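Reminder to self: tokens first, then the designed residues, so the page reads top to bottom the way the pipeline ran.
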């Protein structure tokens, strides 16, 4: 089977369900940014040998695919979509609570830097925030599951805490934002 179909050569693509829309539609922006985040997680995974964190990120990648499939649906085939389990939000909160308990109290803004895996985690955070903004824009045009915005909001928080946790694990001090 060929990967290319040439169907999108005129700037149009098909949603799950068959509806055709332009590739610059906010719906495509929303699930495309979720896909971009998932790819960034693939980069991050290559730098995370810690099994517990690695396994959790793999779980998050699967949830992001589930989210993307819901965003890519035209509504006519929703019965085929994977279930969005709200328990992942509780899991994110639990993971953040565990990491935060091992971190010093945050008293100022920190710069998104450190070693490559810390900086990549910050990139994941910012791409996640952009995905959240795109989904919020989409939600003003059509109904989407509430879970998706909640999940993306909590997920970006998770990446912030993970970046701090990795910094501590790697012995890298946080760089505070200093105004001039």
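Designed residues (180 positions):
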């Amino acid at each position: 089977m060929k990967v290319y179909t040439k169907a999108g050569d005129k700037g149009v693509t098909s949603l799950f369900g068959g509806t055709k829309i332009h590739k610059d539609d906010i719906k495509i922006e929303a699930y495309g940014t979720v896909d971009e985040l998932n790819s960034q997680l693939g980069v991050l995974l290559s730098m995370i040998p810690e099994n517990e964190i690695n396994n959790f990120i793999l779980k998050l990648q699967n949830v992001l695919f589930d989210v993307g499939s819901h965003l890519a649906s035209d509504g006519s085939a929703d019965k085929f979509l994977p279930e969005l389990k709200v328990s992942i939000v509780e899991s994110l909160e639990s993971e953040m609570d565990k990491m935060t308990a091992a971190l010093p109290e945050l008293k100022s803004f920190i710069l998104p830097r450190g070693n490559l895996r810390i900086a990549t985690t910050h990139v994941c955070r910012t791409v996640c925030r952009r995905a959240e903004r795109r989904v919020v824009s989409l939600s003003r045009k059509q109904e989407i599951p509430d879970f998706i915005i909640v999940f993306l909001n909590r997920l970006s928080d998770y990446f912030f805490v993970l970046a701090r946790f990795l910094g501590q694990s790697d012995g890298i001090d946080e760089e505070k934002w200093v105004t001039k």
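The mean pLDDT is 94.
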